[in-house]
Amino acid sequence: MLKKWTAILLAASLGLSAGCWDRQEVEESFVTIAAGVDTCPGNKLRFTEQIPLPPPEAKGKATRTEKTAPTGPSFVTISTVADTFTDGARKVHLNTPRGPLWQHAACYVFGENFSRQGFAGEIDWLQRNRQIRKIGYVFITRNATVSEVLKVPTEVERIPAVALVSMIKNQDTSLGIYTPIKLGDFLGQSITPGIEPTAPGVEIVEEGGKKRLRISGTAVFKQAKLVGWLNEKESRGYRWLRPTMIIGGTKVIKCPICDKPVLLDTLRSTSKIKAEIKDGEIIMHIKIREEGNFYEQKCRHQLVTPEMIPILNREAEQLIAEQVRAAVTRAQELDSDIFGFGQALHSAYPREWTRLEEHWEEVFPTVKIELDVQSEVRRSYLTTRTLEFRY
């Protein structure tokens, strides 16, 4: 009898709890494609959301050959002033009759001033909120607010948030300057001992009387605060030490004969960091293996030859080493271990790391590096000889 009543109560409880108790109807919601936060006077925050708008319906019937350009705005931004992240996100309901769907956010943009003040408390909310997917990309504004950045229309992509994501991903494989980072990785590195996060910067520039968005610099963080920026050379050096394989990018070296630019592109690159303690010094042994193709030259010298290829390889190795050293020097000036040297030390010397962890920010600037870089030109695409023009 006891088992019978237990089964009945269990079935009843399942019936009462069944269903999506916290569901949000689509017709009662709007999609948040980007979100960001700035500082405001009075220790408050300005919370901004970007919402894509559906394209206006075309008037009449368009034929197969007709191409109609979209008219009207393709997005709208909404800003509210609040005390906290959550307060700002919920105050959006005061401006719109629908509620936000965070699951489709493509990027999160944080203001430069807000980032310099630090957002250790806000990280907790971003990590805790189950509605915020951690796959959106992180950007830091430069000389502009979040609302200003998210209001700049783009010509190719209809929505600024989508344009930012496309820009950071495309430059990674074509140029190889800045390192994209997703919200989940940014939060993880912020709370993990032995490594600090970075994020690409975005600024507003005027070209031909029009405002445009441009990826600019790498923001360096320390204890959840923005402490400085890496320039283009330093950003390239930081990218070479990415823990995962690098695909794509370019290297501009000098012709060994006339010093004119020669461009080599990168097929793939890997790096490994191994810590060593020797004579009381901490040394990071950095091994980089890179291979690429001969792509372009501005002179007429025959460079794709068995004699010249080793010279080009050495030029590329020197360039990579210079960029890495520049990045390490800048990071040590900022006392921010963005490379994970602390994690490498922990892996090799766990006891010593336990002793050094509490004051790693003081030890990190004294760490030495030893570089082992190997670069190899593999192919030259459709031709192995430079065209010779007849005059």
Description:
By secondary structure, the chain is of the alpha/beta class. It has 2 domains: 191 residues, no CATH class; 149 residues, GMP Synthetase, Chain A, domain 3 (2-Layer Sandwich). An 8-stranded mixed sheet has the order 4-3-2-6-7-8-9-10, with helices on both faces. Strands 11, 12, 13, 14 and 15 form a 5-stranded mixed sheet that branches. A two-stranded parallel sheet has the order 1-5. Strand 9 and strand 10 form a beta hairpin. The longest helix is centred in the last third of the chain and has 25 residues. It is globular. The relative contact order is 0.10. The mean pLDDT is 85.
Q: How large is the radius of gyration?
A: 26 Å
The largest sheet, given as strand count, sense and whether it forms a barrel, is:
8 strands, mixed
Number of helices: 12
Q: Which bin fits the share of residues in helices? A: 25-40%
Secondary-structure element sequence? Answer: HEEEEHEEHHEHHHEEEHEEEEHHHHE
Q: Strands of the largest sheet, in order across it?
A: 4-3-2-6-7-8-9-10
Features:
alpha/beta; GMP Synthetase, Chain A, domain 3; five-stranded mixed beta sheet; 12 helices
